[in-house]
Amino acid sequence: MAAMTELEGTELGSTKVRIESGPVRVFATAVKDGAPQYREDDAIVPPTFPFSWSYWGTIDGATKGLPIDKLRGKGRMILHGEQEFVYHRNARVGDVLEGTARISEVYEKDTPSALMEFYVQETSWKDAASGEPVVDVKFTLIVRDTAVKQKEG
After folding, report:
1. What is the pLDDT of residues 9-22, one digit of tens each?
2. Interval 110-129: pLDDT, tens
3. What is the pTM of this model?
4. Within 10 Å of residue 101's Cβ, how many Cβ atoms?
5. Quick one: 87 exposed, middle or buried, by C-beta within 10 A (0-12, 13-18, 19+)?
6. What b-and-e string marks burial along 15-30, b requiring 16 or more CB atoms within 10 Å of the CB?
7. C-alpha angle 39-51-70 in degrees, rounded to nearest 5
8. What domains are defined for the chain?
9. 3-class DSSP state of 31
10. What sections of the chain are H helices per DSSP?
11. Which helix (H) or strand (E) holds 52?
12. What is the DSSP string of 88-130?
């Protein structure tokens, strides 16, 4: 199976989230960051916390996400690749943010052991009331397909 390049440029929709103190504290604990700034009433969020917003805290709508069911299969392993966060300001407990996501890039790399498919998803989060940008998140999902190499060999 080849990378689904037809997904490149696909708009995944938008979602709103409310940043709540409980999830911020739990996330900070999970990543073993005991800094007190994540436990205050108007706490800022840990640097990688925006990755979880589409899964934790959604209050309106939901982005579609990548078609994981179509990426699975015999000899195919789904891996978490790179993450990148570009902050325009700190996100804080109490913020209501709106994120708009799209698949920005799809490409392949052929290695001696597997065909690697790369799916890059970008989400821009802005303050829902003011429209001001808060953080841009870039995430790369990798599918390692050894079945292709087994057929060739």
Report:
1. 989 888 899 999 99
2. 988 889 999 999 999 999 99
3. 0.84
4. 24
5. middle
6. bbbbbebebbbebbee
7. 150
8. 5-152 (3.10.129.10)
9. coil
10. 21-30, 68-71, 147-152
11. none
12. SS--BTT-EEEEEEEEEEEEEEE-SS-EEEEEEEEEEEEETTT
